[in-house]
Amino acid sequence: MRNAPEDLAALLREAEHAVVLTGAGISTESGIPDFRSAGGLWENYDPMTVASMRTFMDDPALFWRFHRPRIDMLGAVDPNPAHEAVAELQRRGIVRSVITQNIDRLHSRAGAVDVIEVHGSLDAGRCMRCDHAVSMDEVCARADAAEDGVPRCDCGFQMKTGVVLFGEQMPTQAINAAYDAAESADVMLVIGSSLVVAPVSQLPGVVLSRGGRLAILTESETDYDPHCTVRIHEKAGPTMQAVLAALDA
Ligand code: NAD
């Protein structure tokens, strides 16, 4: 198995339809903890509780005590060299689609376009009863003005963001777009995902079953490692910048 940035550059150069799939690990170098690495979010919180539809409905004050500071934290970080490299590969026409599990919008802020956000994103707020939509700034203003920290719609019901919660239906359009991209990909590059959260965990299998090739750039191991053409266990940012340099060489 090949494992150098130059190998990844060669694979991408040969590709006619490369797709990038990213998870929380691409954003750790921006200062956002992932779920499963040491120091990740699961060490301090149970995401099944704080990021679940059940908590949002039954205990919105607990839900918003966790999520309100995270909105500020995510607003204060910037895309890192890995997000920038992905956007550059897309600008060069080497990467056709970017699929992400992340809700942080850093791919779009780095310049990637038509990003397929399979877990939604922190783009706006909306009332779960009457569907009234407001900006994230408005969500925060309403949360900060409320005694219990819960942003409420004019109709009185609590508002939520565009992030998909555990127990909530996945966004059909994004999931379909992700499968379409995987089905037409001859190369899939996975960056910073443990590939354990469905349905994204199935996408590399879709590519492989249609004769495509797989590259994974993630620090920890994944179940797909034996099926990779290129497998790199390094930090995403410096590696992706080295890939760009190798493409330019
Ligand atoms: P995960 O936490 O399960 O796995 C992250 C992977 O990235 C691990 O394999 C880890 O070794 C690797 N990694 C961490 N830092 C890295 C780096 N600098 N370079 C290369 N690899 C690195 O993440 P997941 O598979 O995306 O699943 C977690 C779920 O949580 C996702 O569904 C996602 O929606 C959500 N989440 C999102 C964010 C975000 O938007 N930034 C943050 C935390 C969790």
At the fourth level of CATH, the homologous superfamily of the largest domain is: TPP-binding domain
Helix fraction, binned, reads 25-40%
**Content-based structural category:** alpha/beta
Strand order of the largest sheet: 3-2-1-7-8-9
Q: How far apart are the first and last residues' alpha carbons, in Å? A: 22 Å
**Over all CA atoms, what is the radius of gyration?**
19 Å
Shape: elongated
CATH class of the largest domain: Alpha Beta
The domain tally reads 2
> In what range is the share of β-strand residues?
15-25%
Briefly characterize the structure.
The protein has 249 residues and is α/β, with parallel strands linked by helices. 38% of the residues lie in helices and 17% in strands. It folds into two domains: 1-31 and 79-121 and 170-249, 3-Layer(aba) Sandwich (Rossmann fold); 33-76 and 124-161, SIR2/SIRT2 'Small Domain'.
Question: What features would you describe in this structure?
Answer:
The chain is 38% helix and 17% strand. The chain contains ten helices and nine strands. With 249 residues, it is an alpha/beta fold. The chain folds into two domains: 154 residues, TPP-binding domain (Rossmann fold); 82 residues, SIR2/SIRT2 'Small Domain' (2-Layer Sandwich). The chain has a six-stranded parallel beta sheet, with helices on both faces. A three-stranded antiparallel beta sheet has the order 5-4-6. The protein binds nicotinamide-adenine-dinucleotide. The site of nicotinamide-adenine-dinucleotide has 28 residues, from loops.
Main features:
single chain; 249 residues; alpha/beta; Rossmann fold; SIR2/SIRT2 'Small Domain'; 2 domains; six-stranded parallel β-sheet; three-stranded antiparallel β-sheet; 10 helices; binds nicotinamide-adenine-dinucleotide
